[in-house]
């Protein structure tokens, strides 16, 4: 890490802290040449492999926009969308992979979206699970109903 003041390539870490979201590390550094201190933020890069093979950086905003389309007209707030995007990013980072397929991100959206809003879940799932007929929708709805029954039985 080059010192931003004197461009010396050597510095020492004085303090390290994990950010609130746990996805980055904030480090206080001190230049070994001029003695001045500066802060760096370090994150692990995560790339998305698009269908055409192009690599792009992962973006929570893109996840939010995709989920927003599925949740259009539903009682879902921006904060809810942000929580889904954070859950997706945490799931993806937990795999330890530095590159992930775009389709895998769509599949990672499904569980938190299912918990948030069943209609938005069905809309989103119809794309990422490639529903081809009404039978696919009926199967997904039956799964949702079964999960709801199981939850009710656990709470009783």
TrEMBL record:
InterPro entries named among the record's database cross-references: ATP-cone_dom, NrdR-like_N, RNR_NrdR-like
Keywords, sorted A to Z: ATP-binding, DNA-binding, Metal-binding, Nucleotide-binding, Repressor, Transcription, Transcription regulation, Zinc, Zinc-finger
Domain ATP-cone: start-end pairs: 46-136
Pfam families the UniProt entry points to: ATP-cone (PF03477), Zn_ribbon_NrdR (PF22811)
Annotated zinc fingers (unnamed), start-end: 3-34
Record flagged with keyword Nucleotide-binding: yes
Region (Disordered): 1-21
Cofactor(s) of this protein: Zn(2+)
Feature: compositional bias, Basic and acidic residues: 9-21
N-terminal signal peptide: none
Cofactor: record remark: Binds 1 zinc ion.
NCBIfam families given in the database record: transcriptional regulator NrdR
Function: Negatively regulates transcription of bacterial ribonucleotide reductase nrd genes and operons by binding to NrdR-boxes.
Record family assignment: Belongs to the NrdR family.
Protein name: Transcriptional repressor NrdR
Organism: Agrococcus terreus
Gene from which the chain derives: nrdR
